[in-house]
Design a protein that fits this description.
By secondary structure, the protein is an alpha+beta fold. The protein contains 26 helices and 19 strands. The protein folds into five domains: 144 residues, 3-Layer(aba) Sandwich (Glutaredoxin), CATH 3.40.30; 103 residues, no CATH class; 95 residues, no CATH class; 72 residues, no CATH class; 94 residues, Glutaredoxin (3-Layer(aba) Sandwich), CATH 3.40.30. It is 50% helix and 10% strand. The protein starts with a strand and ends in a 9-residue tail after the last helix.
Length: 677
Amino acid sequence: MDWYPWGKEAFDKARAENKPVFLSIGYSTCHWCHVMERESFEDDDVARLMNETFVSIKVDREERPDIDDYYMTVCQVMTGTGGWPLTVIMTPERKPFFATTYIPKESKYGRTGLMQLIPGIGTAWRNQRSDIVKSTEVISEHLRQLTVNSTGREMNPGIIKETYHKLRSTYDPSAGGFGNAPKFPTPQNVLFLLRYFIETADAESLKMVEHTLKSMRMGGIYDQIGFGFHRYSTDSHWRLPHFEKMLYDQALLIIVYNEAFQITRNVLYRDTVHEIITYVLRDMQSQEGVFYSAEDADSEGQEGKYYIWTEPEIRKILDPPEYDLIVRTFNIENDGNYEDEVSRARNGHNLLYRSHTDETLAREFGISIKAFNERLHAAREKMFAYRTERIRPQMDTKVLCDWNGLMIAALSKAARLFGDAKFKHAAMRAADFILANMRSSDGHLFHRYIDGEVAVTGFLDDYAFLIWGLTELYQSTFEPRYLKTALELSEKSCAIFGDEEHGAFFSTPADNELPVRSKKAYDGAIPSGNSIMAFNLIRLGRITGQHDLEDKASTIFDSFGNQIQNQPLSHIYMLAAFKQLLSPAPNIVIYGDKESDATMEMLRVIHNSRRVDSTTLMLPAGEEAETSYMKGFTKGLRPVDGRTTAYVCQGYKCDKPATDIKELARIIEPRTEDASG
């Protein structure tokens, strides 16, 4: 099969040979992409037909999210749905006239197969070209109308409480999470609720968070042996996962469980943070210190095979007490608890998930929690060692700037809360590598790195997520270069992506070759670049005194005001940023020797407070020149009586300086009133 990369060569060839273009968009760890590859693209008959009829282009959606975003919109406009693999057929002028997702080789279950579809499109291309061209014009005009800029409308502060109630109405009280199967982790929903709880002390918001996080951690969506989260659950109880593991999920869920522990002190959340990071540093980190994109769902051509167990395997590996504990803890059945993907029979296959807590099981076995955890740990270690001998799923070794930015933020937040130098150094290695290898001499970012090669001009998401990561990393290291670089990248973001006329940010640079330069505010699997930029600009504007940055953030909310008000649950992280604008989180400045015991004590108080949204700056005595870019905010702040001093500022006022850690704790803890109901 003759595949071409996206570019001038392919479209010139289509024009010269008078053929339509067949565009297939997928990604390395996409299960149905692999199915379509095996049953169709590797089939001689399909390949012959496609080569005769089309010029075929293959695109990795993670490498070219701009292409994916545009043609996914095409598919949704034309069919009302979307997904991957994404299949689009277009003219050599890049105007689409057919779109769908997975196509089987032969027609079945009401889906037209490629062997029937291709000849039909070929005939229509030869005999009905004028009708096809007319249809592309209608589609193109509709797409242009969808992206027409408007001034939006001013956001109503009441949208925050309204969104909370809408989110509560979608909550699943039986299994946690939001909506029905398939059920995704949706970490932005949890982050919104955590911040809502901080401000309101609404007990129901925290209850939803805790039930969701506990249910996910105990479900099959969590890899109970090797750690890390699978992409989503195909059922509503988190038991049956789609097995691929994405870097962005690990990063966002580290942040979620980290903040949940910071607020509740539930050790399950602490352990989950440590376990996810164990997986990421063990399996997803490159030798250079950056992080790979994803791990496949399939091994040996079968989804989930790497993660499935039989009862005889477990009996062979473990001694009798360990065996009894594992069988009970993870719901192992002799006949299996998991249906094979192909045969739809159980065949003795078991997927590990939990139904009971450690405390319940320890009582059942008549042992202490400590003894239970030691036995569980020993058994899991044996099972993990056994599993490593299997053929493991493929790792997608692409390094993406935006997803690495998320992981830098996650590791930095965990490093602060748990005081773990390993987490901090991992974040620093990744950040330093990206800044040295994925940034041009004039300071612009690249999107992708693999095998020593950088490619693809950076998108808004690359800048937004890396700025977030660097701002968090600064607070874990207090190295001024990270905050200074975050400010420089913010300035470049405004220049490259900012829309001076209508506000907010485009997703792509101005020289992008797609027909429409889009803007996005809605959350997908990860928050939108515009929502993260709003959050970044508000925070950076306040900690540096550069109020123009906060003004730019306000234009984002105004620009998307209509669609946010109409569909708040699709813009949940944007609303979390809007909440930051309305209810400023504390900015805490510590002035003193950053290595002194007094400074360390103050930092422990700050990092252990429930203010998960606070920002901490350090003004080391004698190093004012290095932090001159903060002067608009920190001007006039000095240590009291030569002692390490903390200034807590919120909104446009600062509390009186604190030199006593008890006084500091009193000031920074959120003062809330119950707003339930």
